[in-house]
Each structure stands twice: as structure tokens, then as C-alpha cells.
Specification:
Radius of gyration: 14 Å
Strand content: under 5%
Strand order of the largest sheet: 1-2
Distance between the termini: 32 Å
Number of strands: 2
Structural class: mainly alpha
Order of helices and strands: HHHHEEH
């Protein structure tokens, strides 16, 4: 035994959060879980209590996942991310967009304040 603490599996935890929030099975996929983590800026060593809701473009989400989780999505997968994760998350009021035209390079998403407050309690007595 190495003595090092085992890192939590943030993707599995994100799945548990999405299940608890009532997201359908399709939005509990690995990609959707990773996108949710990226929107929250929760890295492999981050605490859920440190989650944030900064505005992010899909390009920023892809960059975060590559940097923090070493998971690469091609830039041409943006439409898949938009349709499979962003739109359902927005429809469920987990995230919001900034109201720019969808073809604008300034079109961004962020986790709603209400969802952020809830997610920050994950892993605590408050979560239950």
C-alpha cells in the first residue's frame, strides 16, 4: 500500500448528482458528467464546495476537460456537447445562457445560482 489517499472519481460523483437532480439517463453519460464538472470548474482534486459558475463557452469546457482530466474532445464535437448536454441542462434549469446569438463567439453558459448552491453541498450532511 502506497500510503497515498485514493482520489475520488469525480465523474461518478457527477453522475450521482445528476441522478439526484432527476436528469434522464441520456444526460448521465460520461460526456454529460464531464461537461457538468467543467461548467462547475470541479477538477479531480477540487472539493464540490469550491464549485463555481463562471461563464464558459463550449471551447472553454473542452479546454478544461483536456487540462484537468486529460480527456480530449475534438472542436467539431461542440454541436454534440451543445445538443446532448447544454440544451437538456438548460431545459432542466441547471444552467443558463447569456442570451447572445447562438452563432456568436461570445455565447456562453453557466450553472444557475440555485444549482450551484445545491451542488456545493454534495458530500456533506446538507446534501441528503
Amino acid at each position: 500500500m502506497s500510503g497515498r489517499a485514493r482520489q475520488p472519481n469525480r465523474r461518478k460523483e457527477a453522475s450521482r448528482v445528476l441522478v439526484a437532480l432527476g436528469m434522464p439517463l441520456r444526460q448521465q453519460s460520461e460526456m454529460c458528467c464531464r461537461v457538468f464538472l467543467a461548467l462547475l470548474k470541479v477538477g479531480p482534486r477540487s472539493d464540490w464546495s469550491a464549485a463555481s459558475n463562471e461563464w464558459s463557452r463550449i471551447h472553454d469546457v473542452i479546454g478544461f476537460l483536456k487540462r484537468e482530466y486529460r480527456v480530449s474532445y475534438a472542436e467539431n464535437s461542440r454541436e454534440t456537447i451543445r445538443k446532448e448536454a447544454m440544451h437538456p441542462f438548460r431545459d432542466a434549469a441547471l444552467i443558463e445562457d447569456n442570451g447572445c446569438a447562438t452563432n456568436s463567439p461570445n455565447y456562453k453558459y453557466r450553472v444557475t445560482d440555485e444549482a450551484l448552491a445545491l451542488v456545493r453541498t454534495f458530500g456533506t450532511d446538507e446534501w441528503e
